[in-house]
Amino acid sequence: MHTCILSVLVFFCLGIWGCGPEESASPGLSESMNPSSDLSDSRDQIPVETSLSGPLVRKNKTLPKIVAFGDSLTAGLGVSSEESYPAQLEKHLQERGFHYEVVNAGVSGDTSAGGLRRVEWILKNQPTVVILELGVNDGLRGLPLEQTYANLRSIIDRFKNAGVMVILAGMRIPPNYGEAYTGEFFDMYKRLAKELSLPLIPFLLEGVAAQPGLNQADGVHPTAEGYTIVAQNVFQTLEPLLTNGTGHPAME
User: What is the pTM of this model?
Assistant: First the structure.
């Protein structure tokens, strides 16, 4: 089973797809990498070390807040906090005259169900924009797509009803889950974006997935250099929304 789990982990980089969804109990991380091994036993549990009661850690309370809301790809598993994509995105924004704080609300191993339970906690921190990156751990467990879709839609609806702009990050899963499932999984993000009139990052890991030099040894999580590209992917979608098409910072 350990070998099978690892085969899922390297799908982006090495192309080893030896186990199907019914065999994978992992949310996309091996127990040795996952700071909360409880995730191997629960399909939608939030890691126990994550506190949902206190406020998000902020460096500057005067700036409008962009919250990066997701799983280990947002949290930056395997790199320093300064090398995660949210931290690099904030630096990218500031260098271009956009005065926002980007807060990392990524939880390693999180699913769409776990994210749904965190929405009210995020809203207490009054974000202006939320970058939503969730669902891939659902897919790696072979969960029903209608369940993931419903959870993501509920997350989006709650944010939008609170006046928060949501940017949706598209994701992919490996082809060993079947052509129909993997295709519908990828299309799910486009469907959500169209139905709910959301800006969409077509594929968060564009230019990074399947590039050995840009991924860590697990083949899933980017290196610091890989996260630089991820931050650029996010910025390409985010920038027009912050400038209102003028080329100059707005929404501040």
Answer: 0.78
